[in-house]
Amino acid sequence: MSKSLGRSQESSSELGDGYIKRRTTVIQRGGGPGSMSSSYGYSRQSHYGGGLNLAPGTYATMSHEGVSNMKDKRQHEKKEMQSLNERLGSYIEKVRFLEACITQLEQELEIYRNQKATDFKPIRDMYENELAQARKVIDELSAEKGGYDAKMAGLQDLVDTLRREVSSLEEHCNEYRTKIDNQASQIGGYEGELATLRLRIENLENENAKLRQLNNQRSEENRRLRTDLDGETAAHIEADCRASTLEEEVEFLRAILDKMPNETRQPVKIKGLDLEAFWQNNMAKAIRDIQNEYENRLDLMRQDMETRYSAQIRQVQSGAVRDNMETQHAKEESKKLKSQINSTSARFAELEARIAALESEKAALKQQLAMAENELDAERTAHNADNMRLQTELEGVLSELQLILDAKLSLELEIACYRQLLEGEENRLGLKQVVEQAIGYQSKGATNLSNIVSGGSSGGSSSTHTSSHTAGGGSSGTTVKTTTTTIKSSSSSGGRYN
C-alpha cells in the first residue's frame, strides 16, 4: 500500500501544476496469511482526465465535507434512536403501571366481592345534605349578589349623574374661562385706550401750558403797552396843560400890554417905522407859528399814539379771542376726556368687580368639583373593596363546591360500580371495561368541573347534565350513571370608571 501511494505521489509531482492528463490510484487491501476467513479486500481505481484546472486541496475538501455529512447523519440517527428508546421505555413503564393498577383493582374487587352488601344510604344522605347546604349558600350568595348588583346599578347611575354634572361644570368653567379671557382682552383694549387718552391729555396739557405761557406773554405785553399808553397820555395831557398855560400867559401879557397907559408908552419912533404895529404883528405871527407848530406836533403825536394803540388793541383782542377759542376748545376736550376717563374708570371698576365675582364663582366650582371627585373616589374605593370581598367569598364558596362535587362524583361512580359488582356481574372483560370507563369519566368529570369553576368568573348560570353509559357487551353490560353539574358565576366587576 505504501508503495502504491508513493507511486501516486511521484506521478502527481511529475505532472506539476499543469493540466491533469491522467491519474490512476489503486488501493488494495487484503488479509495476510494469518488472517481470519472473513478477510476482505477491495480495489478502487479512479481516472481523471480532461482539461480541468482544479486548485490543490479540492479533493481533500470534498472528502472532508463528505465525512462531516456522514458524521452529522450518524449523530442524528443516534439521537432518533435514543428518543425512540426513551419513548419505548416510558410506554413499557406505563403498561407495567397499568397492569399493576389492574391487578390492584382486581384484588380490591375480589375483596369487595367477598364482603357482604353494605347500605350506602347514610353516606348518600350526608352528601345530599351537604349539597343542599351548598345550594342554599349559593342561593343566599346569589340573592346577596342581586342586592349588590342593584346597589351597584344605583351607584353607577349616581356616577353617571355626577359625571354629567362634572362635564356640565367643566363646560360652564370653560365658558367662564372664555368670558374671562374675552373680558381680559377687553380690559387690555380699555387700558390701551386709557393710556392713549392719558397721553393725549398730557399733550393737551402741554399745549395748554404753552398757551398759558403765550397768554401770559401777551398779557405782559398788553400791560407794557398800557403803561406806554398811560405815559403818552400823561405827556399829551402835560403838553395840553403847558399849551393852555402858555396861552393864558400870552393872554395875560396881552392884557397887561393893552392896559398899560398910553402916556407911559414912549414909543420909539423911527422915521418911517411903526414899532408898535411891527411888534404886535411879529408877536402875533410868532405866537401863531408856535401854536400851529405845537398843534401840528400834538396832532402827529395823537395820530401816532392812536394808530399804535388801536393796532395793539386789535392785536391783543385778536390774540385774546384766539387764545380764548383755543382755551375753550382745550377745556371742552379736557372735559370730554375727563368724562371718558370717568366712564372708563367706572367700566373698569365694574369689570374688576365682575372678574372678582367670576373668580370667586370659579373657585367655588373648583371646590365643588374637588369635593365631587373625592366623594366619587371614596365611593369607587368602597365599591371596589366590596366587589373584591364578594369575589373572594364567591371564589372560596366555588372552590368548596368544586371539592364537594368532585367527592360526590367519585362517590357516585364508586357506588354505581360497587352496586353492579355486588349484584353479580363477574365477567372479567365487562369488569375491566366498567373500571376503565369509571376512571375515565371520573377524570373527565373532574377536568370539566375544574374548567367550569375556573371559568366561572365570566358567567352566571347553573345547569346539571346527567348521562348514562353502558360498559360491557350484551346482556351483561354495566350502566354507569354520571352527573355533571356546571356552575357559572358572574363576577360583578361593577361599572368601569373612566
Helix/strand layout:
Elements: H1 2-15, E1 23-28, E2 43-48, H2 58-114, H3 121-259, H4 275-422, H5 428-454, E3 462-471, E4 478-487
Antiparallel strand pairs: 1-2, 3-4
Keywords: Coiled coil, Intermediate filament
Biased composition (Low complexity): 452-470, 477-498
Family: Belongs to the intermediate filament family.
Describe this structure in words.
The protein is mainly α and 498 residues long. Among the domains are: 1-28 and 43-50, no CATH class; 182-336. It is built from five helices and four strands; from the N terminus they run αββααααββ. It has helices at 2-15, 58-114, 121-259, 275-422, 428-454; strands at residues 23-28, 43-48, 462-471, 478-487. The strands form two sheets. A two-stranded antiparallel sheet has the order 1-2. Strands 3-4 form a two-stranded antiparallel ribbon. A hairpin with a 6-residue loop joins β3 (462-471) and β4. α3 runs antiparallel to α4 and α4 (275-422) packs antiparallel against α5 (428-454). The longest helix is centred in the last third of the chain and has 148 residues, at 275-422. The protein is rod-shaped and about 215 Å long. The model is unreliable at 1-52, 425-432 and 455-498 (pLDDT under 50).
